[in-house]
Design a protein that fits this description.
Length: about 675
């Protein structure tokens, strides 16, 4: 790049760097800065070759048009002005800032004292941090053109997955692609997803992120990625050739296979941490606008996220940043939806959460975003932060009450079948009050956070010592059970019952009303050795093993069989709750005697047995589902069917050594689940 360039006042919109002919327009929001500079770097990213003063436009936007300048140019911003942390101002021209709208980044981030605004004695730092900062890179991709699968929520089965951990040990994926976007869309992994029957892959964070300094000091890394540096750039370690279009290629491959791509996004906080954290981007441009601070105490951040800072979505420019980022990932990168980490933050004003918050209204009226899949993690650690069931249509929500009650039932907790019944049928008590249905509940047993499915039936206590926090981190209320031995066991009987219990969980999950989510590795019996908070375990604790025993694991076939059964029965695709006198569907509950449950039966403390039928009057199909969490087999009377009709065994969690002759009386083995089907078509008309 020549050092001789022409500069002029640029356009205020769009924000970021935009190529226009042989010039690039730069625009950045910094309303309280006295001057903003554009720093241009050579192709190595090491030498700052030009520092250009930008022009201040109305509304606090600084702009500059530079020509000649082309795609690939490396740059950053520097903002001068008051450096008064006690008043919430962190302007420091010695700190190179990542463009909040950067579409691409070049180079690595390195922790050093250079990133901090003041020296230990409280004086303002005049140390240049550019050597330790990634540079923003001018990049423009064409909009995504692929055909999207557009599955309805009734058809959707989610598979939560980590980009690296899913494929970095997969023997059929070329070494160069393992752990990358292009490895995730390799034919062998896509075939695996298709064999399972999932319709959407939900990726843990892929926005550019960095590891927290306290982790790197312990030789650990932020593996999950919930520590965003930039909301537009794909995480660079997931690229093969440092080419962000690889993400588009991945999406295209998934779409051609009929699989949607959903991103787990972190708009609740950034990697700049608390007020004593580094100056990397937003803090150096408009700290008081982008972050929530304590009223009358601007030096102190509100920490409803537990990560040091909280994004201030009440600020119009912060709201715009989030909405622009979301649209970019849909329109340019091709994704089909989002799962919002700590989503309550995005609906919170200074007075608390509101389902009419500007952000939620803006999403609802946005012609791009109101058509994609929206999933909330409906809680944060702030006041009134638990908001399960409070989000408006068309939002879906992670249902942790479903997770916990199913775990409690299969761990033989008493007095839970009443709540279990509500959860199995879509949690009407949580969603119907604001005109939503069972498909607004995202049901799951395990996720990235907590025990894996195998560990859920192998450990009763967390074992997080490797995280370096003396096993104090992670949840303690796991509702788990170890089947007799804590951790790994070669005992044949223990292994058998553990597999059976995993099947019990999967059968319950995949035949419940709601949108099911499977956590990656559940189908391979992946274990984290009892670590229920493996966020910093970028190693074999987290990476899926693809040994022959795993690739052909019986849980893969079991999941496939369950999802085929689910697909055949329209009750699971029905978007309304089934109540008495429903014109199409009938739900009936039975005791082990085959007679209707009475009020007293629901309150029997020792009852660990649940049997219910789902009848579709249009198709004449009926499902009978039986769950026995107890230690004893139950001699069960199956409900009577019309003359000449018989129950057929569809699937069971026990390993059958010989065919079962289905009779009106059936032995329901201890700790087992069973599904029977019947076709009630009148044979006289056949």
């Amino acid at each position: 790049m020549s050092h001789s360039v022409g500069v002029s006042i640029g356009s205020m919109s769009p924000l970021g760097a935009t190529v226009s002919g042989d010039a690039v327009n730069f625009a950045v929001y910094a309303p309280h800065a006295t001057q903003v500079y554009l720093s241009l770097f050579d192709s190595s990213g090491h030498s700052e070759i030009l520092s250009l003063a930008m022009f201040n436009n109305e509304g606090g936007i600084w702009s500059l048009r530079v020509e000649p300048l082309a795609e690939g140019a490396l740059y950053g911003f520097r903002a001068d002005g008051n450096y008064k942390p006690e008043r919430g101002y962190f302007f420091n021209k010695h700190k190179l800032l990542v463009d909040p709208y950067a579409r691409d980044l070049y180079g690595e981030f390195t922790w050093s004292e250079r990133h901090y605004g003041q020296m230990p004695l409280g004086t303002k730092s005049v140390v240049n941090n550019a050597i330790d900062m990634p540079k923003s890179r001018v990049k423009q991709l064409a909009p995504y053109q692929g055909k999207r699968p557009a599955h309805s929520w009734g058809e959707t089965v989610l598979y939560e997955c980590h980009v690296k951990g899913a494929t970095c040990r997969h023997p059929e994926i070329p070494t160069a692609l393992q752990g990358k976007f292009l490895g995730l869309c390799h034919a062998s992994f896509i075939e695996h997803l298709q064999c399972l029957g999932v319709t959407a892959i939900e990726l843990l964070p892929v926005h550019a992120f960095i590891s927290e300094q306290f982790l790197t000091a312990k030789g650990l890394q932020n593996y999950w990625g919930y520590n965003s540096l930039n909301f537009f750039t794909p995480h660079k370690s997931y690229l093969v050739n440092d080419d962000i279009s690889e993400f588009q290629q991945m999406v295209s491959h998934f779409h051609k296979a009929g699989i949607e791509v959903i991103l787990d996004v972190v708009y609740n906080h950034t990697a700049e941490a608390g007020s004593d954290g580094p100056i990397l981007s937003l803090r150096g441009l408009d700290n008081l606008g982008y972050y929530r601070t304590v009223a009358e105490q601007p030096a102190h951040y509100i920490n409803d996220t537990g990560c040091g800072n909280t994004l201030n979505i009440d600020s119009p420019r912060a709201l715009q940043l989030v909405l622009d980022s979301l649209r970019y990932w849909v329109e340019i990168m091709g994704v089909d939806g989002f799962r919002f980490d700590l989503a309550t933050i995005l609906g919170r004003t200074a007075q608390g959460f509101s389902q009419t918050h500007t952000f939620l209204q803006a999403i609802n009226q946005d012609p791009v975003l109101n058509k994609v899949k929206l999933i909330a993690e409906p809680w944060d650690i702030g006041p009134g932060g638990y908001q399960l069931g409070a989000f408006p249509a068309p939002w879906r929500e992670w249902n942790d009450k479903y997770r916990d009650i199913v775990r409690r039932f299969w761990s033989q907790e008493s007095c839970v079948i009443g709540e279990l019944a509500k959860r199995l049928h879509g949690s009407f008590d949580l969603f119907e009050h604001n005109l939503r249905g069972p498909l607004n509940s995202v049901n799951f047993i395990t996720s990235h956070d907590g025990f894996t499915l195998t560990d859920l039936v192998s450990y009763e206590h967390k074992h997080n010592e490797a995280n370096g926090e003396h096993n104090r981190d992670g949840h303690s209320a796991n509702y788990s059970f170890n089947c007799g031995v804590e951790g790994y066991s070669q005992d044949i009987d223990i292994s058998r019952i553990r597999l059976q219990q995993q099947k019990n969980f999967l059968l319950t999950l995949l035949l419940s009303k709601g949108v099911p989510m499977i956590s990656s590795g559940s189908e391979l019996a992946h274990s984290q050795g009892g670590n229920n908070n493996a966020y910093c375990q970028n190693n074999r604790t987290s990476w899926l093993a693809w040994k022959d025993s795993q690739i052909n694991h019986p849980l893969i076939r079991f999941i496939d069989d369950l999802l085929r059964l689910r697909k055949r029965h329209k009750v699971f695709q029905h978007n309304a709750f089934v109540h008495q006198n429903d014109p199409r569907f009938v739900i009936a509950w039975y005791t082990e005697l085959g007679v209707a449950m009475q009020e007293a039966d629901w309150h029997q403390e020792a009852r660990l047995f649940l049997m219910y039928s789902l009848e579709d009057k249009h198709t004449k199909q009926t499902l009978l589902i039986i769950l026995n969490a107890g230690d004893e087999s139950i001699d069960c009377q199956l409900p009577l069917l019309p003359t000449k009709q018989h129950w057929q065994l569809a699937i069971t969690s026990i390993d059958l050594t010989s065919p079962v002759n289905v009779d009106v009386r059936q032995q329901i083995t201890a700790k087992s689940s069973w599904v029977f089907t019947a076709n009630l078509e009148d044979e006289s008309h056949g």
